[in-house]
Amino acid sequence: MKHPRLRQPRLKHPRRPRRVFAQLLLSQTVVTVGVTVVTAGLFLAPVSSELDHDAMQRALSIAQATAGDEAIARAAEARDSATAQRNAEQVRLATGASFVVVTDVDGIRLSHTDPGRIGHRVSTDPEPALSGRSVTAIQEGTLGRTARGKVPLRIADGRIVGEVSVGISDDSIRRRLLKMLTGILLCAGAGLAAGTAATLVLARRLKRRTHNIALADISALLVEREAMLHGIREGMVALDERGRIRLANDEAVRLLGLPAGSTGRPIDAVLPPGRLADVLAGRIAGTDLPAVRDDRVLVVNRMATAEGGAVVTLRDRTELESLVRELDTTRSLTEALRAQDHEHANRMHTLLGLLELGRHEQAVEFISEQSGSHAAVAARIAEQVQDPHVAALLAGKAAVAGERGVRLAVAPATHLPDAVVDARALVTVLGNLIDNAVDALAPGGGGRVEVVLAAAGATLLVEVSDSGPGVPEGLRERVFEEGWSSKDAPAHRPRGLGLAMVRRLVERTGGRIVLDAGPLGGARFTVELPEALHTAALPGEGPDVRGDHRSTGPLVEA
Q1: Could you say which of 83, 107, 368, 523 has the lowest number of CB atoms within 10 Å?
Q2: Do 389 and 427 touch, CB atoms closer than 8 A?
Q3: 129/149 Cα distance (integer angstroms)
Q4: pLDDT tens digits in sequence order for the chain, 558 residues long
Q5: Same domain, 517 and 405
Q6: Pair 415, 533 in one domain
Q7: Which CATH number do you get for residue 457?
């Protein structure tokens, strides 16, 4: 059985993508040609009408001049066709008219270009001219389409004895039009060439600017760009040459807290004055520059573009910064535990020696003394600071400070009930201030840091002072600037962010922070936090937050 032959499907070759410059060149060329043709047509239409009007006026002028010849008028009155023919032909030849026809009062030709038509009635209506009116028109006659002028023929007493009809052929009109048309077409061609050349230059420039990409690729690139910008987890802001925001993706809006309608506005109009605005605007140069926005730590990089603008990338380092701080604290605690383990081993050796020597009473006293001192310190901190988060922070910071040779003391006037509204924020503020004070003392060792916590109603006062070198008066505002620090930054994280973050956090809650010279000889940070405590949980009014909370009594030290 013979199987039918299957027809192979014809493969369609993919259409070659049209490039932007080619599309523009084709479109502009078509538009230029169309505009040139329409313009030439609109110009020729009134020119043709004007030529017809001129031809009719010329025919009328010849007819009026002919009608003024008395010889022709007498010949028409006498119906002398020979005289009328002779004189009319002289006028025709002298003026270049197509015909000069003289008729009697009945419209019978007395002259004509074709002598055989003399004695016959004219082909067009002679009544308007015979009634005394001058007529101009474009009419079809025995000689074809002509521009005509007709006037009455009068004798000396004014009586109408006939008419004079003069015609100028359409061929002569068109010959004049063709002569003008050549100039018009040359002008149109010159305009078309100039337009095509300008289009070609524009298309070549667009080709360079668009990198010769296809028209369909532009839409695809736009869609991909939008998906990429709004899908990445880093903030990205594009600025123009005047520092105005051209584009900001969702992550940048979140990190910077940009208000609605920020596009098209300058950076300084949507961000508060400070390091972050300076970095984005390019007033501070560098790579991986740290900056703070509210309670967020950002790493900013700015790259200038060829057009004079810039692209800024933002990375949220808040969680990483918290992890680094926790790692530093854990490392310090580990070192403290290692030292305590060594100290514990020494105490165990001492206890073992006392037991081997048979001094059991001294051994019991030694154990009671060592355990009692630590228990007393922990009990005193727990009694003064009832909030578990803050108490744990102070205990941990005391251990770390002790390992680094710094004594961390809690003033006797300290009293913090378990009524803190935002313990996390208080821990951030207090922890940064203690770290800053310990860092100022740790290189030399042997110093002291004193902490005061006092409540009055819903207001909480935090005071951290140290016995270090202090801060000169001219630099007391700079320590709160982002990225500024008087100490060398470690390799794993930048400095100059902790105090800036503390100030932002305090001011955001409506509080204030002040740096001045402390009673221990070093720096003193005083923080006032309104509405930081739950008033319903307070047992009574605490000390005046405006007074001095330091006491000459014994301090709780670690």
Answers
A1: 368
A2: yes
A3: 10
A4: 444 444 444 444 445 455 666 666 777 778 777 777 777 776 666 666 777 778 888 888 998 888 888 888 888 888 888 888 899 889 888 888 888 999 999 889 999 888 888 888 988 888 888 888 998 888 777 667 788 889 999 888 889 999 999 988 776 656 666 666 677 777 777 877 887 788 777 777 777 776 666 656 666 666 776 777 666 778 888 899 888 998 888 888 888 888 888 888 998 888 888 778 888 888 888 888 877 777 677 888 999 888 888 999 888 877 766 666 666 556 656 765 666 666 667 778 787 887 888 887 887 777 766 655 555 666 677 778 888 888 888 877 887 787 778 888 888 888 888 888 888 888 888 888 888 888 888 666 678 999 999 988 888 999 999 988 888 887 878 787 765 565 554 544 455 567 877 887 888 778 889 989 888 888 999 999 888 888 765 555 444 444 444 443 344 454
A5: yes
A6: yes
A7: 3.30.565.10
> Are residues 134 and 56 in contact, defined by beta-carbon separation less than 8 angstroms?
no
Domain hosting 92: range is: 22-176
Q: Which of 172, 148, 154, 174 is nearest to 60 (CA)?
A: 148
CATH of the domain at 238: 3.30.450.20
This prediction has a pTM of 0.44
Rounded Cα distance between 323 and 352, Å, is: 42
Termini Cα distance of the chain:
106
* Total number of domains in the chain: 3
Helices marked H in 357-477: 360-384, 388-403, 423-441
Spatial separation of the C-alpha atoms in residues 200 and 185, rounded to whole Å: 22
DSSP helix/strand/coil, 282: coil
Please name the amino acid found at residue 97.
A
* Cβ(270)–Cβ(293) below 8 Å: no
Asked which of 282, 316, 350 is the last residue of a domain, the reply is: 316
Q: Please state, in angstroms and rounded to a whole number, the distance separating the CA atoms of residues 457 and 459.
A: 6
Distances (CA, A) of 70 to 96, 111, 158: 22, 16, 12
Q: From CA 412, how far away is CA 410, in angstroms rounded?
A: 7
Distance CA 276, CA 268 (A): 10
The answer on 262 and 391 residing in a single domain is: no
Q: Are residues 154 and 237 in the same domain?
A: no
CA-based radius of gyration for the chain: 54
Q: How many helices (H) and strands (E) does the chain have?
A: 14, 15
Are the CB atoms for 498 and 379 separated by under 8 Å?
A: no
What b/e sequence results for 437-448 when a residue is b if at least 16 CB atoms lie within 10 Å of its CB, and e otherwise? bbbbbbeeeebb
Range list of H helices, 68-169: 70-78, 81-95, 127-130
Residues with Cβ within 8 Å of 290's Cβ and at least 6 positions away in sequence, in order, are 297, 298, 299, 300, 317, 482, 483, 494, 496, 497
Residue found under tokens 């010279």:
517
Neighbour tally for 34: CB within 10 Å: 10
Q: In this structure, what token pair is assigned to residue 233?
A: 């987890």
What gap in Å lies between CA 366 and CA 350, rounded to an integer?
9
Give dist(CA 21, CA 192) in Å, integer. Answer: 19
DSSP E strands in 106-244: the ranges are 135-141, 144-154, 160-169, 235-239
